Amino acid sequence: MKKILYLCSIFMGVLSFAQIRYEPGTFTDNAGNKKDVLIRYEDLKDNPTSFQYKTEESAQPQQADLANVKSFEVYNRVKYLKASINVDQSSDDLNNLSTLKTPEYRNETIFLKILVDGKYKLYEYSSGSINRFFYSTENGEIKPLVYKMYQLDANKIAYNETYKSQLQDLKCNGVSQNYTNTTYTNSNLSKVFVKVNQCADPNFKVVEGKSKSKLNLSIRPRLNISSFEFDSSFTSKSTKMESNSSFGIGLELEYVFPFNRNKWAAIFEPNYQSYTGEVAYAADYIIGGKAIAKADFKSVDLPIGIRHYFFIDNSSKIFLNFVLNPSLDLNSTFVITRTDGSSLGNILVNPRLNFGFGIGYNYNNKFSAEIRYLTPRNTFNGDGDGGSKFKSINLAIGYNFF
């Protein structure tokens, strides 16, 4: 076990090193000097306060931060601009809302993410639970777009939606200025700013740099390699059945989160499992001294969990999974008989929750292969039936329809 853990730690270290990728970009220092460099891009949810860069691929990493940088950009990915600006500190937690309608500002020097870059600019700032938007008109100062939830009384929440009137500053003939249904979100505000900029400048282009969420649906046939051992009231020793291979099939739904460069995903995969086994064993407490146990297990496993991707190149990636694995039994049976066939009893089967750990490979977001280890679980319904351990390893291949 120690060797396995040691090898896993080395493997994880290699994967982590492989994830440190530097991409072409540029930054401007406080003196106005523009430098073309390679910037480490991580696509985190929160706005950065610093970043790492290299002057060339073989160079040592260096760090730049708010103290010495005016702006930086990873080409075709993201742009940030330093600004000293008022940031509303009001809580958005429904259990901790302010009773004040007006924003509770604190002046901060931060990197603002440029969401839309044109005559009318839209910016975003995220830090922990705070998510705020800002805007500027042509050659104008950067201003907060004001939105705030506040407690009007003990049973009522009110909303300061000043941002809807502020959007009237975006002017272009032919564009409606009815923003009644515009919500205070990245997607809704970006649509407004893109539309007005396209009206104001026919040459305006949208740069899609932000990671987007994805939904994948894969069919996953598999080979299940399973073993089973149990305790019986007829003997003082545990009894093992032989390992058994069976085929199953699953349908995996994967939601890839729109941050951290799509490295994290939630997965849910109903899949069919089966196992049959038979063993004759010494039974100390019955006449004849022998008993025969027969297992016929069928279930639909319902694993739900998380997945993390490690990118190798543009088409190949390795992934790790962790899942909770509840199971829906399909009339499974476990029967113990004497050697003459007479019954010694049936044990009710009710698989308990267990966990799964998997590692796999994905090619071109279309084809995948995974090996998954499921921790031992008790399949018997009650403690009075004795204990049992059902162990399983799955070898699955997948095809993504989307």
Q: What is the strand content?
A: over 45%
CATH architecture of the largest domain: Beta Barrel
Specify the overall morphology: elongated
SSE string, helices as H and strands as E? HEEEEEEEEEEEEHHEEEEEEEEEEEEE
Question: What is the average of the pLDDT values?
Answer: 87
How would you explain this protein's 3D organization?
The protein has 402 residues and is mainly beta. The protein has two domains: 76-200, no CATH class; 214-400, Porin (Beta Barrel). The protein has helices spanning 2-19, 163-166, 186-200; strands at 22-29, 34-40, 50-54, 62-65, 69-74, 78-88, 105-116, 121-127, 130-136, 143-145, 148-153, 156-160, 214-230, 239-256, 264-268, 271-282, 290-301, 304-311, 316-325, 327-329, 333-337, 343-347, 354-363, 367-377, 388-400. A hairpin with a 7-residue loop joins strand 3 (50-54) and strand 4 (62-65). Residues 1-18 form the signal peptide. Keywords: Signal. This is Outer membrane protein beta-barrel domain-containing protein.
